[in-house]
Amino acid sequence: MSALDIFIQQLLNGLVLGSMYALIALGYTMVYGILGIINFAHGDVLMIGALTALTAIKLLTNLHLPEVVTLILAAVIAMSVCALTSYSIERVAYRPLRKKNSHSLAPLITAIAMSLFLQTLGMIIWGRSPVQFPQLLPTTPMNFLGTNATITGKEIYLIIISLAVMIGLILLVNKTKLGRAMRATAENPKVAGLMGVNPNFVISITFMIGGALAALAGVMMATNYGNAHFYMGFIPGLKAFTAAVLGGIGNLAGAMVGGVLLGVIEALGAGYIGDFTNGVFGSNYQDVFAFIVLIIVLVFRPSGIMGERVADRA
């Protein structure tokens, strides 16, 4: 492959990876935009979604449906389960803290505790060992626009689905009554309540949407890599948080841009720097590049590329 082909290949790999990061980052940024907290259990909701989809696929196989239909139904089931999981997390773990005006560290500690709880629950239900995720989408490589770079039908599906969901979420927030209620609650929950908005309902719905997005990202990730396990959500969750910070946490468009950009940076770093160092800092250490980006952004531009659209609360 020529240098151009390699560059295009790494861009395609980064775009696929970044689309998944963007979906997870949207959940982080939605919750932060309304509550001002980081839900570090979000990545483990992704894990619950992937493993739930795997169980659903095994059950749906007996119906002998087309493979794509089986995957879609499994994803819908996983998204429903994760929406309820996120709703339960908000009601049990976060709402009592909001009512008591707890110390600012309390939500962070609670989020870490919920993350460990979900990981343990996943390990108990699905076991410690990684399990194979069935390949239900086309995996045959195709040349991209006449170059020697390749992309599979599976990867094309993942990119298109991610883009459609992200555009749909932007329209939901900016063009619907629920979206206006979300924006009002993000600005000032007390004033929003006086204007007829139920902040508790809006916050619960926000958590549920974020959970559904995490489940979809989990299914996409398991489909892309071909396996799932109880610890699979931790590192992607941290990377998605990095993407949200990179784009400007609290900003939906920023989360999308940050996710895609982080995926591209990680792919290019693992590809080029890995080759330059004979693999020492290649794919085996690709996580390093994401966290280097996080450090650089926090030092030089804490508000992220697109700034932060979160008003100060009274």
Using brief descriptors, characterize the structure shown:
314 residues, two-stranded antiparallel sheet, 72% helix, globular
SSE order and pairing:
Layout: H1 3-35, H2 42-60, H3 67-99, H4 105-126, E1 131-132, E2 141-143, E3 150-152, H5 153-175, H6 177-187, H7 189-194, H8 199-225, E4 227-228, H9 234-247, H10 252-276, H11 287-300
Antiparallel strand pairs: 1-4, 2-3
Helix pairs in contact: 1-5, 1-8, 1-9, 1-10, 2-3, 2-4, 2-8, 2-9, 3-4, 3-8, 5-6, 5-8, 6-8, 9-10, 9-11, 10-11
Instruction: Give the rounded overall mean pLDDT.
Output: 87
DSSP E strands, number: 4
The strands making up the biggest β-sheet line up spatially as 1-4
C-alpha-based Rg, rounded: 20 Å
Low-confidence region ranges: 276-282, 309-314
Please give the alpha-carbon distance between the first and last residues: 58 Å
Shape: globular
In this structure, how is the largest beta sheet organized?
2 strands, antiparallel
Helix content: over 70%
Q: Treating each run of at least 4 consecutive H or I residues as one helix, how many helices?
A: 11
Order of helices and strands: HHHHEEEHHHHEHHH
> Proportion of β residues?
under 5%
Structural class estimated from helices and strands = mainly alpha
